[in-house]
Amino acid sequence: MRQSPVVETGSYPVTRKPARGRGTLLRLVGAGVMFTVMADTTATTLAVGLMQHGDAGNALPLNDLLWLTSAAFVPIAALLATAGRWADLFGRRRVLIIGLVVFVLGGLATLTVPDWPMVLAARAVQGVGAAAMIPASLAVLLGELPEHQRRGAIALWSSASGVGCLLMQAGGGWLAEGFGWRALFAPVVVVGMLLLLAATWLPPGLPAGRSGARTRPDMLGAVLLAASIGAIVLAISKATSWGVVCAYLAAGALVLLVLSLLRSRRHRVPAVDLTLWRRPGFAWGWLATWGFGVLSYGLLALQPLYLLHLGFPMLEVALWLTPTSVAVAVTAWLGGKVVRKLGPYGLIYVGATACGGSCVVALAQSGPTLWGLAASVGVGVGVGALAPGTSMATTLAAQPHQYASAVGAAVMSRMVGGAVGVATVSVVIGHPFMVGPMGGLASALAVCVAVSVLVGTLALIKMLRMPHATGEVMVLVPRKMLLELRMQLATVAAEADALLPPQPAADPGHAAVPAVPPQLGRGQAHAMRPGSQPRVHGGTRLARTPEGLSSWQ
């Protein structure tokens, strides 16, 4: 059946082009949030490495040091979906500002509190703030920009994460060497304060007719959802150290997730927007995003481990990773230019192919060579293409009033996939299935190749099944429905015509009967009778007019 695309705006108003100053501010705040979050994540990675190989760790074991990462990672993953849902319900700027306030306060505590448990608590507070910032920042950006600028905005938002990682890698070593590992978190606090000031000038980001939820949202369902996702991520992250406890934790998380979904089916303002999953293409984009998380986090965790295994100090490791970060930032920005030709899934396919091919090249190397450097750049190109591709595939599949919910669900999927990727790489390195002096690293690279093939295959199947899917906010309306609507309009027009004054008769003794055009048969003359309803004959609509018989296709 032939189908025609019709733009669906839902309850969100048709977005007009914002003023130049406001459009620039929207882009700066949206990109600044991702810049800050990724810089903070990179700072955490550098801090763990510096404390592990220096005196700053105060002889803490590695498992305790890794909690510096988990303390922020778990609340981010747990609260992303809920924060995105609340941003759509209560206002995106409001949630963004709250997230920035919490993030800055957590950062200030990280810089000042003396005890290690308090540092971990401060990092958890920063994770809560980041979970609110991420979906609200992109949603307020997309909601205020016209449709033709949204792909470029997503590309800018994605490339900002690479820039944040790059700058922190370039300057983090100098900060830590001169002022200690806590100084790594000082730049993100300063940028967070600037973003908080700029966010007060943003539009409120509420859909038309949605000044807030009229019914209290499902708070219990939100708590169940956050607890389930947090428990899943924690179980995956600690699978190698907690053993069977993680199995019980994962089982409990699944029970909590099922309870949250059951409540979402019955509540008027559910914690999970189930209608989002009925949008065309959203589930496919969500799966691709999960695979991207497994692949990207696995590769980004594998690269420093590989360089540390070769004996490079941590500061030089950061410099070796710089080409990867540059490639991520540049490719993500260029992705917004080429996605109109390739589509989101075409961009995903290119990114998966680049990652897989780079891993194959790296498998053939035994040390840092020019080919190894090229493979590192190839990984950056692949990750840079996957980031905007997966973001567009999920976010633009949603209706405008669901943007924050879609971003939260997508980034949550990426975070859960990232936990799986890091845990898998850690397990495979410790229990390799390939032999040789670097069997563990080679085994992990082989796993990344397999994941790349899976993500690329998923994108290819999607393109073959639905080649017209471009990620736009559109629905396909069957042509038959449009024809029926046209017929109804024609009937209304004919009935209105029947109410017009009758044409004066030419012969007083005979009723005026319009002549039948030569192209009409006897069976079509019924359409000429006064007061009769128009008929369809061979795809032609007939109706009586004061001048005679008219027809249209």
UniProtKB/TrEMBL annotation:
<feature type="transmembrane region" description="Helical">
    <location>
        <begin position="25"/>
        <end position="50"/>
    </location>
</feature>
<feature type="region of interest" description="Disordered">
    <location>
        <begin position="503"/>
        <end position="553"/>
    </location>
</feature>
<feature type="transmembrane region" description="Helical">
    <location>
        <begin position="120"/>
        <end position="142"/>
    </location>
</feature>
<protein>
    <submittedName>
        <fullName>MFS transporter</fullName>
    </submittedName>
</protein>
<feature type="domain" description="Major facilitator superfamily (MFS) profile">
    <location>
        <begin position="26"/>
        <end position="468"/>
    </location>
</feature>
<keyword id="KW-0472">Membrane</keyword>
<feature type="transmembrane region" description="Helical">
    <location>
        <begin position="370"/>
        <end position="391"/>
    </location>
</feature>
<feature type="transmembrane region" description="Helical">
    <location>
        <begin position="347"/>
        <end position="364"/>
    </location>
</feature>
<dbReference type="InterPro" id="IPR005829">
    <property type="entry name" value="Sugar_transporter_CS"/>
</dbReference>
<dbReference type="InterPro" id="IPR020846">
    <property type="entry name" value="MFS_dom"/>
</dbReference>
<dbReference type="Pfam" id="PF07690">
    <property type="entry name" value="MFS_1"/>
</dbReference>
<dbReference type="InterPro" id="IPR036259">
    <property type="entry name" value="MFS_trans_sf"/>
</dbReference>
<feature type="transmembrane region" description="Helical">
    <location>
        <begin position="219"/>
        <end position="236"/>
    </location>
</feature>
<feature type="transmembrane region" description="Helical">
    <location>
        <begin position="441"/>
        <end position="461"/>
    </location>
</feature>
<dbReference type="InterPro" id="IPR011701">
    <property type="entry name" value="MFS"/>
</dbReference>
<feature type="transmembrane region" description="Helical">
    <location>
        <begin position="95"/>
        <end position="114"/>
    </location>
</feature>
<keyword id="KW-1133">Transmembrane helix</keyword>
<feature type="transmembrane region" description="Helical">
    <location>
        <begin position="403"/>
        <end position="429"/>
    </location>
</feature>
<feature type="transmembrane region" description="Helical">
    <location>
        <begin position="242"/>
        <end position="262"/>
    </location>
</feature>
<feature type="transmembrane region" description="Helical">
    <location>
        <begin position="181"/>
        <end position="199"/>
    </location>
</feature>
<feature type="transmembrane region" description="Helical">
    <location>
        <begin position="154"/>
        <end position="175"/>
    </location>
</feature>
<feature type="transmembrane region" description="Helical">
    <location>
        <begin position="283"/>
        <end position="305"/>
    </location>
</feature>
<feature type="transmembrane region" description="Helical">
    <location>
        <begin position="317"/>
        <end position="335"/>
    </location>
</feature>
<keyword id="KW-0812">Transmembrane</keyword>
<feature type="transmembrane region" description="Helical">
    <location>
        <begin position="65"/>
        <end position="83"/>
    </location>
</feature>
